[in-house]
Amino acid sequence: MPGRNFLFIPGPTTVPRRIQNAMNHEQEDMRAMDLPGFTKPLYEDMKKVFKTENGRVFIFPASGTGGWESAVSNTLNAGDKVLMSSFGHFSHLWVDLCQRWGLEVQCFEEEWGDGVPVEKYAQVLAADKNHEIKAVFATQNETATGVASDIAGVRKALDACDHPAMLFVDGVSSVGSIDFRMDEWGVDICVSGSQKGFMLPTGLGIVCASEKALACREGSTLPKTFFDWNDQIKTNDLGYFPYTPPMNLLRGLRESLNMIFEEGLDNVFARHNRMANAVRAAVSAWGMRPIANDENWYSDTVTAVKVPEGFDGNEVVRHAYNYYNLALSISLTKIAGKAFRIGHLGDMNELMVLTPINGAEMTMKDLGYPIELGSGVAAAQEYLRSTAKPRIQ
Questions:
Q1: Which of 68, 90, 163, 202: disulfide with 195, CB 3.0–4.6 Å?
Q2: What tens digit of pLDDT does each residue of 219-256 get?
Q3: Do 329 and 210 fall within a single domain?
Q4: Do 374 and 325 share a structural domain?
Q5: 389 contact partners, CB below 8 Å, separation of at least 6
Q6: pTM, full prediction
Q7: Residue where a domain stops, chosen among 215, 235, 262
Q8: pLDDT digits (tens, 9 = 90+) for 204-224
C-alpha cells in the first residue's frame, strides 16, 4: 500500500525523526572509559521527569511488566498484604503479577470506566490499625479504558491515618505525558516504559524508587537476578550496567529527554490535554462518549470510544487498518467489541491528532454507524483553532 501506516494506538507511539537519528548510532563498548560521562547525566535527567530530588531511577532492558516485577521483587516478601484495585486489563495484570509472587492481595474490583477507588482505600487504611498492609498500588492511567486516577488522593488517604505503607504507581502510559509528582505525592515506586511518553521503541523498563523503597530491598527475600536493584546500584554508581545494556535505546532516550526539556514538562502536559480534548470533542459530535464514566476520569493519553449497541468496536479497528492503513487499538476482555481506542500521546500535534478522527469517521460510516461525515473532524478543528497559540513569539 502506498504511503505509510498511521499509528494511533496507546503505545508503542510514533518515534520522532530526531530520536530515530539518535538511535542510528554505531555499536559501542558498554565498558568504555568515557561511558559514565553519558550515563550519569542521563540518570540525573530522568529524575526530573519523575519530579524527584532523592529518588533513584533504574533502567532495565525490558517492558513495563519487567518494571512491575522489579518493583515487587526488590521491596516485598511472600505473604505481605497489599491493597490494589482492578478496573481495566492492565491494572488486572498488575494484580495477577502480585498474586503470582505470593503476596496477599486485597483487591477492589471496580467498574471498567472508573479508576482507583480512593475513598474505599481510605476506609481500609484507616481500619488497618496494626499496619498489616505493606503497600498500596494505584494505576495512574488505565490504558484499556482511557481512565486516569488521582494519585495525590491516594497519598492523602495514607497520610490521613498516618499509615506507613509504600505507594506503588503504574505510570507506564502516563509518565512523560500526564503530570506526575514523585516527591510531592509521596510515591515510593513508579514504573514506566520507553514506548509511550518517552517516544521510543519498546525495550526499556523504567523504575523510579524513593529512599524508603530503596531501604526495603535489604529485607526483601523474593528471588531476583536480572531485576536485582543491588546489582544495578553497584554498577550504575560507576556509570555502567550489570549486563549488556541496549545502548541504541539509551542514546534515543537521551534525545527524548532533550525534546521533553526543550518543550518544558508543563507544556508537554498541556499539549497532551489539548490533543485529548480535541478527540473528546469529536467523540461528542459523533453522538458517542468515552468508556470513562465521568470527565474526572478522562485520560489525556488515550480515549476508549464506546460504540452504540449492535456495533463491534474491534471491527472498526480491523476496517481502519485494512482499508485506510490506520492503526487504532482494540478493546479488551470485559469490554471487548464495546469500544475502540485512539491513542493521543507522545509526539503529537494538531494535524496529527486529526488523522485518527478522520480515519475513524470514514471507517464508521463504511460500517453503517449513524454519524455524519465531517462532524467529529469539524468539532476537533474548531476546538484546536480556538485554543491555538503562535509557535514563534
A1: 202
A2: 999 999 999 999 999 999 999 999 999 999 999 999 99
A3: no
A4: yes
A5: none
A6: 0.97
A7: 262
A8: 999 999 999 999 999 999 999
